[in-house]
């Protein structure tokens, strides 16, 4: 896996991933940015959220559960001093489907958190990680 980051101007950067996708990043105005794109640490959270959502959906689909929707909200706290690593990350899942079983959803989240989601497992090296979920019955 690889990624190349190029500085554009001010505090704006563009990343080109190994798969050929472009991703913009920018700094906050107080840091010389123009607030045109996400901050790098926001992208780390997005990556962890995407990683676990991918896992949970795949696990439930493979288990032949009728999952219709999945969203993950992440709330994070950072250290006050440099390096301002994440110290606490809360993953809040909302899953919708037909007759989704609570134990199946709990198992899928647990497998993601403990075995498959490398992004959240890495975050867990510096942060206290917690997981919550709700199930919404789909029409």
From TrEMBL:
Give the Pfam families listed for this entry: OsmC (PF02566)
| Top-level taxon in the UniProt lineage | Bacteria
Q: Which NCBIfam families match?
A: PRK10738.1 (NF008009)
Protein name (Swiss-Prot/TrEMBL): Osmotically inducible protein C
- Which organism is this protein's natural source? Thauera terpenica 58Eu
């Amino acid at each position: 896996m690889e990624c190349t980051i190029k500085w554009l101007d001010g505090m704006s950067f563009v990343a080109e991933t190994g798969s050929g996708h472009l991703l913009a990043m920018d700094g906050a105005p107080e840091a010389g940015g123009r607030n045109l794109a996400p901050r790098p640490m926001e992208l780390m959270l997005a990556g962890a959220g995407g990683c676990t959502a991918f896992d949970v959906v795949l696990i439930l689909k493979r288990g032949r559960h009728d999952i219709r929707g999945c969203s993950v909200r992440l709330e994070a706290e950072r250290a006050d001093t440099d390096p301002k690593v994440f110290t606490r990350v809360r993953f809040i899942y909302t899953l919708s489907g037909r007759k989704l079983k609570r134990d199946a959803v709990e198992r899928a989240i647990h497998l993601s958190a403990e075995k498959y989601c490398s992004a959240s497992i890495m975050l867990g090296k510096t942060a206290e990680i917690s997981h919550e979920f709700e199930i919404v019955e789909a029409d």
